[in-house]
């Protein structure tokens, strides 16, 4: 038990020693390259002022193995071609130590290691970023791929390694790979690097949109209370107010609030008076892009139809009452007529 406890303490001490910031080597990555298995690669020591006395090592104590496809030339390491076990951090001692992260993937095209942001409907220029290798070889061909497939849309080239995309669309976003082919010492190699294009859509502010009212007429009762709502959708802060055609000031009793993303101006008329009737009450919404108007007209309720309905209903009721009286009191009416109008009865007889 004592032996095991001592071994655990020793292991813990080693872990703390390695993890201590004061003892462990602290570094940051100066450059990242993503490539694919089977492609050539050249890692330059950009921190070196000359090619002389440049020393390379691998992070973690892994040695450079010239027999495993690595070759040091001048201030750079060549991979002809790169293999999966070449992934890792490479350090060269230029003016300061220069740390390079090399990621060797298994796909046909490498993952993107650089991003270009452009705006919709503008032109986009993609640079292959191959100077670290193209300046040292004679390329036999250069092709561009999107998502590892041949380009389909129209495109132009500033140079073979600089691709121009005119009037960018949303569908242009994606990964673009430049593939360079070259020969060296009788063998053919390919080098590929991928750039991710991000297309941003910029929403420009527009004039405010009035949802209600547009061109509305409302029937109201004199003396009634009315609340008129003006609902506006806008991309930016908007001034919303109620006016009349001959007034340039807003109503004192108009309140503006935000409700569920809409700006709402509520005009409260506590008592409908003749001055509010048949006059356009205009909602004006204004922002930096312009002015939008909507209006509502209040009209007095027309009761003539109701009055005529009452008159017609009363007449119909009187006629029905007369018919009922005649039907049930016919004999009494005849006797009453004979007793009170004998002369008229004799003449008719």
Structure description:
With about 350 residues, this protein is of the alpha+beta class. The chain has 4 domains: about 25-105, Immunoglobulin-like; about 110-200, Immunoglobulins (Immunoglobulin-like), CATH 2.60.40; about 210-300, Immunoglobulin-like (Sandwich); about 305-349. The chain has 5 helices and 23 strands. It has helices at about 1-20, 130-135, 305-330, 330-340, 340-349, and strands spanning about 30-35, 40-45, 55-60, 70-75, 75-80, 90-95, 95-105, 110-120, 125, 140-145, 150, 155-160, 160-165, 175-185, 185-200, 210, 215-220, 225-235, 240-245, 255-260, 260-270, 280-285, 290-300.
Layout of secondary structure:
Blueprint: H1 2-19, E1 31-36, E2 41-44, E3 56-58, E4 70-73, E5 76-79, E6 88-93, E7 97-105, E8 112-119, E9 124-127, H2 131-134, E10 139-146, E11 149-150, E12 156-159, E13 162-165, E14 174-184, E15 187-200, E16 209-212, E17 215-220, E18 226-233, E19 239-243, E20 254-259, E21 262-269, E22 280-287, E23 290-300, H3 304-328, H4 330-340, H5 342-348
